[in-house]
Amino acid sequence: MSAADLTQLEFDQQHLWHPYTNVAKPGPTFVVKESEGVHITLDDGTRLIDAMSSWWCMMHGHRNPAITSAIHAQLDTLPHVMFGGLTHDPAIDLGRKLLEITPDSLTRIFYCDSGSVSVEVAMKMAMQYQHAIGQPERKEFATIRSGYHGDTWKAMSVCDPDTGMHHLFQGALSVQHFVSRPPVRINEGWSDDPAQNGLGELRAVLEAGQDKIAAFILEPVVQGTGGMYFYHPEYLNQARALCDELGILLIFDEIATGFGRTGALFATGFCTAQPDIICLGKGLTGGHISFACTMTNDRVAEGVGGGNPGIFMHGPTYMANPLACAAAKASLDLLTGQDWRGTVSGIAEQMQSELAPARELPNVADVRVLGAIGVIEMKHAVSADEAHARAHDMGVFLRPFGKNIYTMPPFITSPDQLSQITAGMLRLAQEL
């Protein structure tokens, strides 16, 4: 049968490669024809609540009128122009907004294409800074285990080399310095004992590699794809002091945690420390178009400029794409123009209550909620394919990962819709 004779779904299964799938056994796949608000509509007319915010980015819901209007208006005037030697109002207006809401010390903004690329930019920036200030031997990075920072080459090197998705690439990737994930959970009392809070191990690794390590990179407070693990923010404060002592830069990967998802505008807000570099993506445009940015302070930016070759060696073709900048500005205006804290707090309270019964199930290891993130951790791996098979019946699209059945619902999710999501999660915890 020729490609022209295949149905849409048959063509997809025979020719399109989806993320983290076996092309010979692609698993259940749904054809989406339309989306609006919290719903995606399939080709058979079924409407499913997108409990994943389409991989955590669609925080204002699908096809948000303010964001789509901004994109439409921009499309009629300036869809794209190179950012080399040129600039435009959407990039400048977005930059002003970012400076209003991000940590005060972060004053320089580098626009890029996606979250993974923002991590690449951050690592490149840290290494080039160290080279510029006369420490070219600092080419390596430290990070915590169970982390995830993206699928591009350098980003993969700071994902967990043993339990992460990229372990088979070990030997080809740069060898980095790993410490145990912070052992004190966010809801536990902080221990000042370095042997108990993880800072002793971190100091030992950073001191041993001091002459080689350019930066320490981690996801603040919440490890996402690495296990939906929530740890104590005091670890970040003390890591900041340790990095300062040893001349190591501190990078916060806030791609998943940014823009209110955790209950703070940025997870950085849980601590007093500010990073040297921050990576932002996902919710930046409300999920309507791919975009990300890497922000840094004057010290790093001017350090790079003061060295050889005197310029930052990166420049994506679609850097500062005007459509994406317009979408991002509209998304951030939407977020900050509402009581987002109250909204996220309400989602958290409801999930705490409605997911609590899962604690009594025999195969459940833990139930945890932080902001608009709800997790049922199982004692065994959970099949995403089997969860997908129940989506039609539940009216909810959930995509478990590893041992975790989780949701990051759009902020516009109503209480009734959220109850449908939590009921679906409880059903999966009982049946899978």
Automatic annotation (TrEMBL):
Primary localization class, coarse: cytoplasm
Database matches in SUPFAM superfamilies: PLP-dependent transferases (SSF53383)
The protein's Enzyme Commission number: 2.6.1.62
Molecular function as annotated in GO: adenosylmethionine-8-amino-7-oxononanoate transaminase activity
EC class name: transferase
Cofactor(s) demanded: pyridoxal 5'-phosphate
Compartments (UniProt record): Cytoplasm
Residues that, per the record, bind substrate: 55, 148, 282, 315, 399
UniProt keyword terms in alphabetical order: Aminotransferase, Biotin biosynthesis, Cytoplasm, Pyridoxal phosphate, S-adenosyl-L-methionine, Transferase
Sites bearing N6-(pyridoxal phosphate)lysine, chain numbering: 282
Recorded coiled-coil stretches: none
Catalytic activity: (8S)-8-amino-7-oxononanoate + S-adenosyl-L-methionine = S-adenosyl-4-methylsulfanyl-2-oxobutanoate + (7R,8S)-7,8-diammoniononanoate
Protein family (similarity comment): Belongs to the class-III pyridoxal-phosphate-dependent aminotransferase family. BioA subfamily.
Function: Catalyzes the transfer of the alpha-amino group from S-adenosyl-L-methionine (SAM) to 7-keto-8-aminopelargonic acid (KAPA) to form 7,8-diaminopelargonic acid (DAPA). It is the only aminotransferase known to utilize SAM as an amino donor.
Listed name of the protein: Adenosylmethionine-8-amino-7-oxononanoate aminotransferase
Organism of this sequence: Phaeobacter inhibens
